[in-house]
Amino acid sequence: MNLTLHLTDNCNMDCSYCLRDKCSRDMTPEVLRKACDLAFSKGGRAGLCFFGGEPLLRKDLIYEALDYCEKKSAETGIPFNCKMTTNGTLLDEEFLKKAKEVKMGIGLSFDGKGQDISRRFPDGSSTASLIEEKAKMLLSYRPHALAMLTLDPKAAGLLSESVKYLVDVGFQNISTVPAYGKKVNWTDEDMEVLRGELNKVADFLRDEFMKGRYIYVAPLISKIKECVAGKNPAEHCHLGVRQMPVTPDGKLFPCTSFINDDDYYMGNVFDGIDNERVAEIAKRSNTPETCVDCDLKTRCTNSCGCANRMNTGSENKVSPLQCTYERMIIEIADRLGEELFNYDQKLFAKYFVKEP
Ligand code: SF4
Ligand code: SF4
Would you state the pLDDT for residue 277? Predict the structure, then answer.
């Protein structure tokens, strides 16, 4: 099974939209080993995602987990894979050599041209040039690493320049997501700026595709892929069934945004998963009432319980912001998909149609 290990609640940055309550609570080696045992306990495949706060503050725990899981994998024959989300400030060559050796998937939180608008050190100093340097180092070891851009409304007008910049730095895989939560405020004007910027990103991706260059930018490219495959993106949300977070003290919850809410407690690494609770919580995830009659309901991530809860307080209630954003993405992705298909159907099939 797949677990997200919150190795620490601490972080060495102070992003303006951060949703975490930072404190110096770290995972103990005992909890770490129990979590690894749990990941291997269901057979199939064991997966760990190293997460925080900032997980590289506890590199020692990551090395320990990798050693422990590599041994367990050799003993049991159960395949093991790992990934990490990091702010990048503490990446170094030694760690990246190990990451390459174990084929670690790495997501680097990097806001491109908007980095210094929201992502600064606690003393207010800039992180932009440091992260550019670390990103280049990361890509020299893990060329398919993902740049994860969180869009602050204050940086909405920089989105297309940011995507181009991240491509110039060397990323082929980029994800963009609007910042949500109480610390940000998206106005109607910001949303219109965002629409213009997403259209510019789509134009850029089309022009690059015409030059024979495929760049993955989620959610535009992922929406096209899901549409071609007839996949419902709402099914991404499994409320903990696929990727369960583990807190530093070993508690299990359905998703990172539900952490420390007793209403969503699903067991712990010492006593195991409470399957009755899992079934009960999974049953709560329904198509939101406002979406039942919408034509886009099979293309929309309206059932992302985590985003809904953050925005509206309820896992089954979509915010007007999320609804507007989803409509925007679907419309622009459809326009882009049609242009790519009409340009070269064979090339389109190569990137967007999965072999049976
Ligand atoms: S790097 Fe992540 S955990 Fe740290 S302050 Fe920024 S958003 Fe929060
Ligand atoms: S577009 Fe809006 S109303 Fe339609 S399914 Fe998505 S969130 Fe619901």
Answer: 85
pLDDT tens, position by position, 136-169: 999 999 999 999 999 999 999 999 999 999 999 9
Residue 335 has pLDDT above 60, yes or no: yes
For 207-236, what is each residue's pLDDT tens digit? 999 999 999 999 999 999 999 998 877 665
Angstrom CA distances, 168 to 36, 203, 231, stand at 38, 16, 31
Residue type, 133: E
C-alpha distances in Å from residue 20, one per residue of 2, 14, 115, 295, 314: 22, 10, 18, 35, 19
Q: How far is CA 115 from the centre of its chain?
A: 17
Instruction: List, in sequence order, the alpha helices (H) in 26-102.
Output: 29-40, 59-76, 93-101
177 φ, ψ (degrees, to nearest 5): -145, 135
d(CA 260, CA 124): 29
Residue with the larger pLDDT of the pair 67 and 318: 67
CA 336 to chain centre: 23
* Ligand 1 center–CA 8 separation, angstroms: 12
Q: 26: CA distance to ligand 2 center in Å?
A: 39
Between CA 138 and CA 8 the distance in angstroms is 22
Which DSSP category does 8 fall into?
B
With a cut of 80, say whether residue 306 has pLDDT above it.
no
Q: Is 248 helix (H, G, I), strand (E, B) or coil?
A: coil
CA of residue 325 to ligand 2 center, whole Å:
9
Average pLDDT (257-277) is 88
302 lines ligand 2 (CB under 6 A): yes
3-state secondary structure of 337: helix
Contact in structure between 92 and 133 (CB atoms under 8 Å): no
